[in-house]
């Protein structure tokens, strides 16, 4: 079904269903609203590759018209080079018209709508969602139409619509949810997911650049992990490293890395390539710990980095404890690792203060980190306390470093 | 007698909200808040229009606030009840966020909660609503938000809370529901939106609340989770939702309620929090 067919159907629908008016004024107002909708939907139809939308204040919009060398499409819409601008003055009217049209089109919901009904639903819901992506009902009507039969091209159009909306509403839950529904549909029919996953990962990366710590975007990226084979998990770890380095305060990106590492561990237990997963996991973990430490030393007082270390050392210590190897000095590897961590703590404790107070935060986080490790199990606690003697008891360190958290650690240390 | 979800001998909703309203009562501009809520009704601005999909939830938030401030009588109960029921879909048993909007568990809970406020559960076909929710439980114990299948731990809490309020919790597979929630527990003690999801104060509230209602709090390591939650308190006394984020007053609810349920609220500085909340007025 071509888009022009859909558009024609929409025009016929509007001609047929204009409500009866009680007064000329009301009729004129309704007509004006419908004209707006018609213009809007025509623009959306004429350019299916729109990749940016902006709602501009009338004065901004006016200057756009004045500056533009191209003819504007109307008084309230401007669309050039796939960039669409809408004057915010007409948004309420446009929204109401789209709502009405969509309501009329979905009056008699059916699991197998006729071609013309489907066309109207898709046209009106698109207009509506670009204005307000939160409208679950509009997303649902699209799912209803798309469910009638599998159409690869239509599903790809959905991904494009979602990407458009996310470009200016990167946190929109309904859009991310719809996107997942589309992908689940695609996954059922596509043999090869890697390319799709790569594109999704890239999309999230772009979104993440524009809106930091975007929970919904990163949740989407984590949601893809079960679809990944081991090789892709390793690729993602490598590819996302640079971004994480440049955004050390973004907890989401480190959580993503933790999810990938856990997927490797999971693979080590469950997949056919379990031996590869196991050795890769070990190497990745070791490297991650080293890399994390350099970042901690470079960027003072970053909670995400220390949280990442809590996670890493938790598994690492357990892994080392189960290792039979010893180091060159005949110390167990676990002991050696714990000594290194305490060395990191004392470096932080000894660092000179700075004007931004970041050193103080660094000290607090370092102390809480040591508390975290020591709480893992009794054996580790003993080893930590032993090695900590040169610095002070754990209680003394915490009292110095984070007095504000005293309620927390006095409880944990039973003091 | 208002019916509220009862949890380990403490009323989940009522006590948490009382703790929220603690602090310098004299400084809370109650009258102004009441006026804001009562007049924040129908507006024709674009901003108002694009929020129409969640009006049922907005009604719950506003009305609960009025109730806490002992001003619930400022609205016409019958009018509210009628409006809520106009959002009901009798064929499915669910509620939409507004008239003519598709049903979803989000708004089903809000509708039931509003009716609880007015003690009007009698207008509901409780069995039908329970069936709607039961139908949304998946094999792994999780819950979808609606027929289109999106799964989120929020929906677990919502489903469990709704059924609890309707005294029909036994209609779902509670054991499986709990199993699913526990599978969303992270190594830092927190919970995310799905298994392996990043710990988030809002999701944590949902999981902790659901476990509380189903008598399953023993699955939680209270010290571990309490630790994560008390680290949400920022220098300015406010609470954030995740590491490195700024404090936001909404987390006063999510984090605080969770701390109260697991009995670790003494781990944060209450006075500083109260001051922060009043500064947001």
TrEMBL record, chain A:
PROSITE patterns: PFTA. One of its GO terms (cellular component) is protein farnesyltransferase complex. It comes from Aegilops tauschii subsp. strangulata. Coiled coil: none annotated. The keyword Cytoplasm does not apply. The lineage of its organism: Eukaryota, Viridiplantae, Streptophyta, Embryophyta, Tracheophyta. One of its GO terms (molecular function) is CAAX-protein geranylgeranyltransferase activity. Keywords: Prenyltransferase, Repeat, Transferase. This is Protein prenyltransferase alpha subunit repeat-containing protein 1. The keyword Acyltransferase does not apply. InterPro entries: Prenyl_trans_a (IPR002088). Gene3D superfamilies: Protein prenylyltransferase. Pfam families: PPTA. Belongs to the protein prenyltransferase subunit alpha family.
From TrEMBL, chain B:
Binds 1 zinc ion per subunit. Residues 1-26 are annotated as: Disordered. GO terms for cellular component: Rab-protein geranylgeranyltransferase complex. The keyword Zinc applies. One of its GO terms (biological process) is protein localization to membrane. Residues 28-281 form the Prenyltransferase alpha-alpha toroid domain. Its cofactor is Zn(2+). Its EC number is 2.5.1.60. InterPro entries: PGGT1B-like, Prenyltrans, Ptb1, Terpenoid_cyclase/PrenylTrfase. Pfam families: Prenyltrans (PF00432). Belongs to the protein prenyltransferase subunit beta family. Heterodimer of an alpha and a beta subunit. This is Geranylgeranyl transferase type-2 subunit beta. It comes from Aegilops tauschii subsp. strangulata.
